[in-house]
Fold each of these.
Amino acid sequence: DAGVTQSPTHLIKTRGQQVTLRCSPKSGHDTVSWYQQALGQGPQFIFQYYEEEERQRGNFPDRFSGHQFPNYSSELNVNALLLGDSALYLCASHDRGRNQPQHFGDGTRLSIL
Amino acid sequence: LAKTTQPISMDSYEGQEVNITCSHNNIATNDYITWYQQFPSQGPRFIIQGYKTKVTNEVASLFIPADRKSSTLSLPRVSLSDTAVYYCLVGPPPQAAGNKLTFGGGTRVLVKP
């Protein structure tokens, strides 16, 4: 039973470019959340998707957008990349109908040059 | 969401018991207490979750006093591989609306030989 998988594992972009990160939730999970983790800090909530809709959003600009597909997988898109967007981007999933914790993938390390 | 306060770092030795206390004075009635472990360049890994009294699993115990304003994660007989950052989170259960996870800075635990 695969856990949460994210791709790619590493990515290098330059300022102004756009990036798409992908996440496949753990089998049986229907809700996906995205987090940004800067070096030396705890993860910060970006947004959460359930039933293909954004249900809650953290304090991130509109440059950050997402999508959830019918198979529950999700994408995180970031436009007009800034140096400050360099971070580890984490995806977490859970089953909304069960009182169980969120499971995290190992993230995508995004470096902006 | 309730704010949490935990030590920035702790040192221990192999074979010892490590206790990390987290303060959450503003915990809400329906909030759960969840602990995650994170190794470098990996996603957070769920350790244990509780609501009141004591919870024990194969890797840790969680002690929650009656007033629920603090909690203590206990790691028995730590090994070098337990060196990691430990996060205490307080918030609604996963199935609740608005169940984003709010991470603080965590506690860096260093286990020495």
Amino acid sequence: AQTVTQSQPEMSVQEAETVTLSCTYDTSESNYYLFWYKQPPSRQMILVIRQEAYKQQNATENRFSVNFQKAAKSFSLKISDSQLGDTAMYFCAFMKHHSGGGADGLTFGKGTHLIIQP
Amino acid sequence: NAGVTQTPKFRILKIGQSMTLQCTQDMNHNYMYWYRQDPGMGLKLIYYSVGAGITDKGEVPNGYNVSRSTTEDFPLRLELAAPSQTSVYFCASSYGGGYYGYTFGSGTRLTVV
């Protein structure tokens, strides 16, 4: 079974600063996907960014980027030029690849509560 | 474009009561999922479905049942509510195995007293 660990229960930074959220995972799989989801106070789960394990290049989506270290099983999220609207819970999640199709869902970490201070 | 719609948004149940959480999606996704989120925890998979007529257990299926008679609908049934089922429930859907991410509903907050 896979496990996902987010070691920072809460972080707080000033608006416009850069912040990095940590995530480590444990798996024996070689082909998998990693995700960061954002959950603002509205409770809606929003996909922020995804990474395919077989791709060495780190994914980037506007102000959001990841540092994917496959050997270290680390998948951190960097938010540049942080904004008040980035205040939310952030969840790291793992999904293994099924070569024959099918799926068995996402495994989530416990989350990091990110607070952007004005 | 509604996406994934969950009803109700809030519900209070008494111990031993039953209820069905409704979930419908209009994106023609073949995969659908039910998760629960307890305070301070990530989401845990209850049940999932890879298509109409096919369902399978996730990590925490005890106390729940599901059915998938159509592509659009994936209701979650609680037969004998217990306080341990107090949680926020999320329905999600994806095209294929969800390798490009899921679309989540807005959640149902359920309290069992």
